[in-house]
Design goal:
Shape: rod-shaped
Number of domains: 2
Order of helices and strands: HHHH
Length: 165
């Protein structure tokens, strides 16, 4: 039983690894198609059966090359349908990772757009209120002193004009 579990896990990782290599190639060469995928092709049964048969043919063709001294060719060929199944499951796991990553990226882009629109909205509302935005307490004190000095100068000019009349 332990050998069967090890074979299943190994073939799961083989499928996952092949799909991962395809994702990396598509990342660095965007024009390359992402062929090793299951969920991108659709969820119809005939597509899943076709993908399984492709994996099964690859397993049957390569099985004699992976035999060892303790595993005969007939045992390797008998185990091939299960190996193909676990290869396809590994590819499905990689597809789920890619779909999750795409959803996270889409969510971060949407969140960034919403955050920027919120910043713009708040900035417009603060401009309407004439509140200083992003100033330090020293800058606020300097602005208050400058405003007080400008008010004092205005009062002095008004007093001088009133004295002239």
């Amino acid at each position: 039983m332990n050998a069967l579990a090890n074979q299943a896990i190994a073939n799961l990782f083989i499928g996952f690894g092949l799909a991962f290599v395809n994702v990396i190639i598509c990342y660095f060469l965007p024009f390359a198609p992402r062929i090793i995928s299951v969920l991108r092709w659709g969820k119809r049964p005939h597509i899943w059966i076709g993908i399984y048969f492709i994996a099964l043919i690859i397993q049957l063709v390569t099985s004699p090359y992976f035999r060892s001294l303790i595993v005969s060719v007939s045992a390797e060929l008998a185990w091939s349908p299960y190996q193909a199944l676990f290869n396809v499951l590994g590819i499905v796991i990689m597809d789920l990772f890619v779909m999750g990553w795409d959803a996270i990226r889409k969510g971060s882009v949407t969140g960034r757009k919403r955050l920027n629109s919120a910043r713009t909205y708040v900035g417009e509302k603060l401009d309407d209120l004439n509140l200083p935005i992003g100033t330090t307490p020293e800058e606020q004190q300097a602005q208050a002193e400058a405003a007080a000095q400008a008010t004092a100068e205005r009062k002095q000019r008004l007093n001088e004009r009133l004295e002239d009349y």
